[in-house]
Amino acid sequence: MLDRDALIGNIETVRARLAAAAAKAGRRADAVALMAVSKTQPADAIAALIAAGQRLFGENRVQEAAQKWPPLRARHSDLKLHLIGPLQSNKARQAVQLFDCIESVDRPKLVTALARIAEEEDRQIDLFIQVNTGEEPQKAGVAAPALASLIEMARAQPRLHLRGLMCIPPADDHPGPHFALLAKLAARHGLAELSMGMSQDYERAAMLGATHVRVGSQLFGPRPA
Ligand SMILES: *Cc1c(COP(=O)(O)O)cnc(C)c1O
Q1: The whole model's pTM is what?
Q2: How far is ligand 1, taken at its centre, from the CA of residue 63, in Å?
Q3: Between 20 and 30 A from 14 (CA), which of 51, 56, 119, 164?
Q4: What gap in Å lies between CA 146 and CA 133, rounded to an integer?
Q5: Over the stretch 27-64, which tens digit does the pLDDT of each residue have?
Q6: Is 136 exposed, middle or buried (CB count within 10 Å of its CB: 0-12, 13-18, 19+)?
Q7: DSSP state letter for 168
Q8: How large is the angle between the packed helices 108-120 and 147-155, nearest 10 degrees?
Q9: Ligand 1 pocket, mutate which of 84, 130, 196, 219 (most atoms under 8 A from CB)
Q10: How many CB atoms lie within 10 A of CB 148?
């Protein structure tokens, strides 16, 4: 793990670059939330960013989050944790218990499971729908033509609060057209929030309307293999 000073230097750099990108597009710096993606990172590195004021984090695996986050949450009641990796229905209950927001919702069966579990757990849960903008067969996310009915379904569930759309563009494509497509789909459906942009392209995402950028390695350094 990077030392404390390096972590703090990184988050200050990313915050400054994010604010500059937002300003270039005529957006306020606080219109774009920086999510620190802490998958594979040790609790000490996460604690250093919490000490630097970071409150919003993302994890991609339910199991890993279950091990790392309860002790951190016990010390800081104002943390927000988003699930950004694929969710299997048999882990949905644990996800509802652990996360404030699930960004990887991509199929009717999962919406039904989350709605039932949120009711049983007496909770409200925030959601983003993940869109497979690159139509990649191996990638999670709903195909654009099936988006409207999934949105309608999620909106009909009183325990679910659909906030916006999320995407992960194909690794070897220019991300800009994917970000623009996600923004267009969200606007068409009256959704205000867009989770898009990672370490390599968060500035572009901020210029194209992201409300959440998900940054891992630019903050924590390269992930262990
Ligand atoms: C790992 C991950 C990120 C962060 O990736 P970096 O390139 O390290 O910034 C963002 N979003 C998702 C869904 C991820 O799985």
Answers
A1: 0.97
A2: 17
A3: 164
A4: 12
A5: 999 999 999 999 999 999 999 999 999 999 999 999 99
A6: middle
A7: -
A8: 10
A9: 84
A10: 13
